[in-house]
Amino acid sequence: MELNQFVNELFDKAKEVGFAECEVYYVDKESLSIGVYKGEVEKYNLNNSYGLSFRGKINDKIGYSYTEILDKDAIEMLVRSAKESALSIESEDIQFIYEGDKEYKDISTYYPELENIEADKLINIALGMEKEAKELSDKVTSFGGCAVSYSSGSYGIINTKGLNLKNKSNILTAYVVPILTIEDKMYDGFGYVVAKSLDEVDVKKIANQGIEEALSKVNGKSVESGNYPIVIKNEAMVSLLSTFAGVFSADAAQKGLSLLKDKEGEVIASSNVSLVDDPHLEDGLATVGFDDEGVATKKTYLIKDGKLETLLHNLKTANKAGVKSTGNGFKGSYASPISVSPTNLYIEPGHKDFDGIISSIDKGLIICDFAGLHSGANSITGDFSLAAKGFYIENGKKTFPVEQITIAGNFFDMLKNIDEVGSDLLFPMSSVGSPSVRVNGLAVAGE
């Protein structure tokens, strides 16, 4: 059944059984992922998925249901399931079917240059990255991965309050992880690109990025335990910020799962730190004009010059807090309920380049990689103890590679101790970004 006809019949049926307000959210996605190993295609996954979720308000409660098939049987099932789920809700939280905003930002997230790319061209990209890596270094003995992926999709919201929004997007990504063996030790590196056209995919550049990162780790050693000034490189800071991003959710705060509850207006970070959620960021991987409740998105400062300005809200959490939604009500999938999620979340860059950030450090560390983030970081307390790799700083210069160390601290304390923010803002195949930052002291366990 065609979408508009299905929606009209679904809304009519829902009203018959007592639903006062109704909404559908639909997603249509396709993706192609190609992985190669030793000059041959190892993985070729082509996926197409379609799904539609229904929300309906009855007796001031909202029920949910979803389907992957658009037919009359699905209409009966959606209405029945949503009514059953609504009547079983015991929570007193008020939820909403949104009437929409007057204006929505015109967002471009679909790139015609990526349309109808032949699979052979994508295979050649993957094979080319592997081939170039081997030609760049005779130390390459294996690969931790070598793949190219293309994805495109459209989604939309239609409700009985007159809202009818839709968007489409697509993107191409490619990466290679060469593994070098030098003196019986293995070192890996990561090269990647996020592209809007094939012209942006340079297989030699990607391979070289991976090789150089692997070579930079050769002959790493530990350092004495102690408290060091630390420069957290942009990619490592992204992984740390991603781990603790949930503390900025109003839903987490209202459930007692964030120490930032009721901290709006307070200084929680160094005056050097401004944390932004920007759904309108050009070429951002989470750029969007409206959230999954139909609220118009906007650029939001969570932290401005060290002060907590706001948490991220959806309609439900905003109503509980007596504020306006920040436009961060999103679903994990069409089958999921609305939660709170960031869009393009990043620390605003400063003015010093990387060399300028390390230049004033007599003895310290550059951290390029954290490991064990899932087990070694507590997103509620902010405490972390993580295996790390990087470089030693001496007399303001990067010197030898460092490994076999553990960095321990607290995320909230660390925010207050950031004394410099670099200019090298980076989004490493992620909707979370950060420049490199300098922290005036973290505990290091080494030799």
TrEMBL record:
A Pfam family that the UniProt record links to this protein: PmbA_TldD_1st
Domain of life: Bacteria
Stretches assigned to the Metalloprotease TldD/E N-terminal domain: 22-86
Metalloprotease TldD/E C-terminal domain sequence ranges: 225-446
Domain Metalloprotease TldD/E central: 113-217
Matches recorded under InterPro entries: Metalloprtase-TldD/E_C, Metalloprtase-TldD/E_cen_dom, Metalloprtase-TldD/E_N, PmbA, TldD/PmbA_N, TldD/PmbA_sf
Similarity remark: Belongs to the peptidase U62 family.
Protein's UniProt name: TldD/PmbA family protein
